[in-house]
Amino acid sequence: MALTQPASTDTSATGVILTEAAAKEIHKIIQEQELDASKVRLRVGVKGGGCSGFSYVLDLTENQKETDEVFERHGVQIVCDPKSLLYLSGTTIDFRDEIMGRGFVFQNPNATTSCGCGSSFAV
To answer: Which residue in 48, 53, 80, 122 has the most C-beta neighbors within 10 A?
Structure first.
C-alpha cells in the first residue's frame, strides 16, 4: 500500500509559479465566467501527447484531491497532482498579450525541448 502525503500550501519559489500578469488573467476569466472565486482553483498538469511528447494542461476547477500539491500565487490557488509536479516543478506560467498573439506561456526548466507553439515539451 502506497503512502500518500497530505496536500501542502507552498509559498516559496518552488513548485509552480504564476506571474502577476497570469494571475490577473485568471481572475478576469473567473469573473467573466461568473465562478465563485473562493472555490475555484487553477489545475496545472501534464498529459502525454503533443508535438514534443507532453502537453500542458490548465483548467479551472473546484475539485482538489487529497494528494494534490497546493500553491498560492497572487491570490490564485494552484493545484497540481504529484506526477505532473515531477515535470513542472520550477515552471513559471506567464500571460502575454502581444501583436502576434495572446495566451499563457510556460517557462519550464525541466524541458529539454519544446514545440514552436510552446504548448508541448519533452524531458
So the answer is: 80
